[in-house]
Design a protein that fits this description.
Blueprint (H helix, E strand, L loop, with lengths): L3 E4 L2 E4 L2 E2 H8 L3 E5 H14 L5 E6 L6 H10 L2 E4 L2 H9 L7 E3 L6 H10 L3 E4 L2 H14 L3 E8 L21 E2 H12 L4 E7 L10 H19 L6 E3 L16 H12 L5 E4 L3 H4 L3 E12 L4 E5 L8 H5 L5 E3 L35 E7 L8 E9 L5 E4 L20 E6 L2 E6 L16
Parallel strand pairs: 4-20, 5-6, 5-13, 6-7, 7-8, 8-9, 9-10, 9-11, 11-12, 12-13, 15-17
Antiparallel strand pairs: 1-2, 2-3, 4-14, 14-15, 14-19, 16-19, 17-18, 20-21
Helix pairs in contact: 2-3, 2-9, 5-6, 7-8, 8-9
Bound molecules: pyridoxal-5'-phosphate and lysine (LYS).
EC number: 4.1.1.20
Cofactor: pyridoxal 5'-phosphate
Pfam family, one: Orn_Arg_deC_N
């Protein structure tokens, strides 16, 4: 459930028409809904009810300061994977005591900064990392709270690039080997074992893999308890999927209920690290059609957003719904043409409010980047004219945060809507920022 909806034939974010946002801030532009973000965060927080818990938003999904600040004000913790994300959380007013540091390659300077600000826990992914954290903590005269991220060898049944819980993946410590590593960790003067962590992948659409992983983690917790190693919290990672097109993932309430049922009366605090399920459907990418280009085989709609703005379709073949900002009026004459001849584009009037409605056609929605893989949507049935605005839904997570300057394209603006107000929360990058910091040879 989100707050992007049509009023009349105009798509709105909460009470603000997206057309007005495009006119005021330009395109491409990410638009987030404050109400949706809050609702999704609360859905997780409420779902765990009175069970001790902490919902740590995965900063990688959307690291805009306004988003982080909003979640921090709701009481969120944060799951980070770099010192850059840590600094973002701090700049946004997040509590370092609610920060979980994940990631397979934490550098010494990153660990030092996390120790300095006093984060909640390091999710340790290898024995070498454990040794490094121990040494750095001793050097500073502190004790580092640690969990081991275990690899439970569970198939997340998601895209292979975003499945992380299989033996062959780089993530975590083999769950079979974890017991010995815990014993070793428990003896180190610079470490305090506080939890077990597990994150098996992203965009999971069924509960089975989560429960399989939890069962394996609980077995490990029991074995550790038998050896006097006390676990305070279980961090079950993120990964809950969202609906992009026709997926039907469980809602946070059902997911949390299933975890809770399996946990029964066990007293562990539960930490979750959702990213996508909080931010994904709280954002759209707003883009304008620059050109319609019929070719002998396809109709291309070349829009002003590209793979550098939204990488998921190019990287994973991900499908995200693309909808018109101005929905065409129902028009009996605008039936699909029976043949596949490309539509003529020249006679389409510029003003979308007065021109005749174009016919729906199958379009390849592509960007201006010089890569054949630069597509945002394939074979989408839309009634388009040049100048039209489109909204790519489900872009609030792994959208802007994965964007780049490829082809020397300034990164998009980001706008947060709050009721009937639209706030610019990151201005569009300028052209000179593209090469700021670069030097020519003397
Ligand atoms: C360690 C860790 N935690 C949390 C997340 C957030 O995942 P999601 O956005 O699928 O909830 C990720 C990304 O998959 C991750 O790698
Ligand atoms: N970037 C991915 C998710 C990766 C999750 C990171 N652990 C996506 O867009 O679906």
């Amino acid at each position: 459930m989100d707050h992007f909806h049509y009023q009349g034939n105009q798509l709105h974010a909460e009470q603000v028409p997206l057309q007005a946002i495009a006119e005021r801030f330009g395109t491409p532009c990410y638009v987030y809904s404050r109400a949706t973000l809050s609702r999704h965060w609360r859905a997780f927080d409420d779902a765990l009810g009175t069970r001790p818990h902490l919902i740590c938003f995965a900063v990688k999904a959307n690291s805009n300061l306004a988003v982080l600040n909003l979640l921090a004000r709701l009481g969120a913790g944060f799951d980070i994977v770099s010192v850059g994300e840590l600094e973002r959380v701090l700049a946004a007013g997040g509590d370092p005591g609610k920060v979980i540091f994940s990631g397979v390659g934490k550098r010494a300077d990153e660990i030092e900064r996390a120790l300095e600000v006093g984060i909640r826990c390091f999710n340790v992914e290898s024995e070498s990392e454990l040794a490094r954290i121990n040494a750095l903590a001793i050097e500073r005269g502190v004790v580092a709270p640690v969990s081991l991220r275990v690899n439970p060898d569970v198939d997340a049944q998601s895209h292979p690039y975003i499945s992380t819980g299989l033996k062959e993946n780089k993530f975590g410590i083999d769950i079979e080997a974890a017991e010995a590593v815990y014993r070793h960790a428990a003896e180190q003067p610079g470490l305090r074992v506080v939890g077990i962590d597990c994150h098996i992948g992203s965009q999971l659409t069924s509960l089975g893999p989560f429960i399989d992983a939890l069962e394996r983690v609980l077995l490990l917790a029991d074995r550790l308890a038998a050896q006097g190693i006390t676990i305070e919290h279980l961090d079950l990672g993120g990964g809950l999927g969202i609906r992009y097109t026709d997926e039907d993932p469980p809602l946070p309430a059902a997911y949390a209920a299933a975890l809770s049922e399996r946990l029964g009366a066990r007293a562990f605090e539960v930490i979750l690290e959702p990213g996508r399920a909080i931010a994904g459907n709280a954002g759209v990418l707003l883009t304008r059609v620059e050109y319609l280009k019929p070719t002998p085989t396809h109709r291309f709609a070349i829009v002003d957003a590209a793979m550098n703005d939204l990488l998921r379709p190019a990287l994973y073949g991900a499908e995200q719904e693309i909808v018109p900002v101005r929905r065409p009026d129902p028009d009996p004459k605008s039936e699909l043409r029976p043949d596949s001849t490309p539509a003529p584009v020249a006679d389409q009037a510029a003003d979308p409010n007065t021109r005749p409605t174009p016919s729906p056609e199958l379009y390849e929605i592509v960007g201006p980047v010089c890569e054949t893989g630069d597509f945002l949507g394939r074979a989408r049935r839309l009634a388009l004219a040049e100048g039209d605005l489109l909204a790519i839904r489900g872009s609030g997570a792994y959208g802007f945060s994965m964007s780049s300057n490829y082809n020397s394209r300034p990164r998009a603006a980001e706008v947060m809507v709050d009721g009937d107000q639209a706030h610019l929360v990151r201005r569009r990058e300028t052209l000179s920022e593209l090469f700021a910091g670069e030097e020519t040879l003397p």
